Every structure is written in structure tokens, then in C-alpha cells.
Amino acid sequence: MLPEPFDLLNDSARKCMTLAKGDHVFHQGDQTRGLFFVASGAICLTRLTEAGALVTLHNAVAGSMFAEASLYSDHYHCDAIAVAPSKVIRLSKSAILLRQREDAFFSEGITRLLASQVQDYRQLLTLHAVKTANERVFQAVASGRLRGSVTQLASQIGLTKEACYRALKELTDQGLLSKTGRGEYVLRQP
Amino acid sequence: MLPEPFDLLNDSARKCMTLAKGDHVFHQGDQTRGLFFVASGAICLTRLTEAGALVTLHNAVAGSMFAEASLYSDHYHCDAIAVAPSKVIRLSKSAILLRQREDAFFSEGITRLLASQVQDYRQLLTLHAVKTANERVFQAVASGRLRGSVTQLASQIGLTKEACYRALKELTDQGLLSKTGRGEYVLRQP
DNA sequence: AATCAAATATGATTGAAATCATATGTTACC
DNA sequence: GGTAACATATGATTTCAATCATATTTGATT
To answer: How far is B66 from chain A (nearest CA, A)?
Structure first.
């Protein structure tokens, strides 16, 4: 359930929390107690800047983590609020830092996880820079991003679901994509 | 010049390379020799997918790094090509992996760097999801992204420079931003 | 001082995707 | 078996940012 290498941590390092919509996971300024995995629901991270503006930093959805950087600071620098009924797992900061010092394999696992997240986010940003909907959807499919629903793809790549459906249709008409029996889209082999 | 913790590496672990536009830093499939820092110019990372489509993974600009994840694989999984005359510094994979094993402070520095990159990319993606140009520019300024030129800001947040200039003007007219004597934009204090 | 490149700044026009609307198909659950 | 929720699908209309055009200002280079 937890992504590597956090699956290696024993149960005492994990604290499950059930949240109603609107509940805080933590507040800006709270002492850091660990990082989090979203088991279900969604968590929104917002920060009140010095100038008084509310800035959204991240919307963490089921299956993803948040507050990794809290490992290296004493206080959370944003609010984490459930935007839907959610379950999150807190991974103890002290347990992680201890394990990281004692277990090189675990430590490398964290670095590896973060490096692959960086890669993925960069690719997503690059994808967002593609101007036309057709080309964007094509690149997204080509890089294997269409696994869940079209709606999920749409929100990932910064288009509406309608625009995605239309692009998929046009790309199929142009022969760049083809649809399998099970309704999946794949690249057309030249 | 190099970001922490790579500034700690001694000279023998750094290899400077000067590239003409179009030169390859490495090819997909090459043995990994390290990760890279872009001193000047710009490097584009592209991958040829199994299905034969060319996907851009990242555009690395001056001051940023690329191929961090190559630390954990034997072969580069993309091409890195200079899109302008560039200087890059290669940081030796073996030196990094060795140092990482022997120096906990160095190892933590890498994790810290990657964690803050993850944070930053996430925030940028969140920013890209903001629908209107005015709100997007406001959030960008509120989170301190307007340091360089407006043109740089524009490409970061996925707008044209014209749209940015217009948004800055409208936000100023609305009293949400104000312009300092030196032409800098700051949040209007309420 | 002259020249060139880039940043700043706006106006006019266009176009592509968002929005709104609607219909059917598919699961899942009481 | 009914209905509620969501995914798929596509047409009509609107809107906002992209594009194109142009001018001034600033900064660097010779």
C-alpha cells in the first residue's frame, strides 16, 4: 500500500487518521511530526504568505504523499486540509530520520522515490507547455498517462474532459491512435 | 555555483563540457556517467517511446539540474540535446554514490534538494491549474515567482509574456498589486 | 556615440478550448 | 430491478488568451 521505501517501516511508525471534509491534517506553524500518505480522499495544501495572500501549494490525491520536505524543518509551513472525507497515514518523522541514518538501503529508497517524482513532475510540466490539445493528448498517451479515466487524464494534463474526448477522437480519425476492443487507446504502429 | 550539496564535491568529480546547439550530452541507452548541472544555455531531454513517438521529458535551463534519476539506473533512458550553445557540468555518478555512502550530511543534502524540487514542481503544477490569467499571475507573484523578467515568469506559469503584462496591469489597476520605484511588483498591503 | 538585442508595454484580431447542454452506456448498491 | 453516480460522447456557443503588430525603453557591445 505505501510506496517504497516506506513500506519497510514497522507499524509503530505509521499512524492512521480519518478525516471529515474540512478537517485539518496540520496547521501552518505546527511542529512537524512526519510526512503523509493519502489512502483515500484528497488533501489540499495552502499557505498564507507574509503579504496575506492564500496560495495553494498542492492538491494531494489518493495514492500520493505530501509534506516530504517537513523532514527537514521544525514547523509545517502550510495548512493541510481535507477537501473530501479522507484517510491518511502519518509516517513518523523521528522513525524515518533514525532509519535513514542506520539503513543505507532505506535512505537510498527515499532518494530514489524523490528523484522519480521530480522526473514525473517535470514531464508533466513539459506536457502542460504543449500548445494544442491534440498534440498534448497524443504526448500524454505516448508516455503512458492514460491509465485511469479520461476525466483523470484531463485534470492531469490541464484540459477539460470534453477537450480530451475530442482530441482522442481526432487523433484516432487521423490514424495516430487506435482503440482496442476494451476501449483503451494505444499508439498506432507505423 | 553548484546547488547544495554538490558544491561539496571536489573538482575531480566535476567535468565541464561546452556544447554547440544540436550537440548531444548523452544518448538514450548510453551507460550512465552522472548527473548534470546547466551552467548556461538550455538542454532538452527527449525519449523515443517503444511505440515510436518522440516525447519531450524536460527542458533544463541555466541553473537547473537534469538526469538525477540516472544515479539509479545503468543506462540513460532519454537523449539530452543542447538547444542552444551551452555549458554543462557533469557530476560523476561514482563519486556521488561513494560520498553518499560515506557522508550522511552529503546524503541528506541530496534528499533535501530533491524534496524541495518536488515541492516546487508541485506548486508550479498547481499554479498551471488556475484558470484565469489574472488569478494565475497574482498567485505567482504572491508566491514570489516574479524575480527575473516577465518573459521568464510567463514561460514558467504557462502564459505568453503579453498575457502576463496585461494581467500585471489589471491587477495593479484593481489595487491587488502595486509597482515599486524599481519596476518590481509587490502585493498591495490591505 | 552608435548599434543591436532584449524587455516592457498595448492595441487589434483570431482561434482554440472552456463552458453549457444533452444523451447514452456502464457499474454498483440497496 | 430501480436508481444513483460516473464515464463516455458530441453538438452549440462563448470567452479568454494566443497571435500579430508595433512602439518605446533599457542594457550591453563595439
So the answer is: 9
Q: What is the CATH number of the domain that holds B20?
A: 2.60.120.10
The range of the structural domain enclosing residue A137 comes to 130-187
Give ipTM to 2 decimals. Answer: 0.92
Tens digits of pLDDT across chain A (190 residues): 899 999 999 999 999 999 988 899 999 999 999 999 999 989 999 998 877 778 888 889 889 999 999 999 999 999 999 988 899 999 999 999 999 999 999 999 999 999 999 999 999 999 999 999 999 999 999 999 998 899 999 999 999 999 999 999 999 999 999 998 788 899 987 6
In a domain, B51, yes or no: yes
Residues 6+ apart with CB under 8 A from A177: A138, A141, A168, A171, A185, A186, A187, A188
Q: Please report which residue ranges of A17-149 form alpha helices under DSSP H.
A: 93-102, 104-128, 133-142
Strand D contact residues in chain B (54-73), C-beta within 7 Å: none
Q: In this structure, is the CB of residue B149 within 7 Å of any atom belonging to strand C?
A: yes
Task: Tell me whether residues B115 and A49 touch, CB distance under 8 A.
Answer: no
Closest-CA distance, A17 to chain B, in angstroms, reads: 23
How many domains is chain A built from? 2
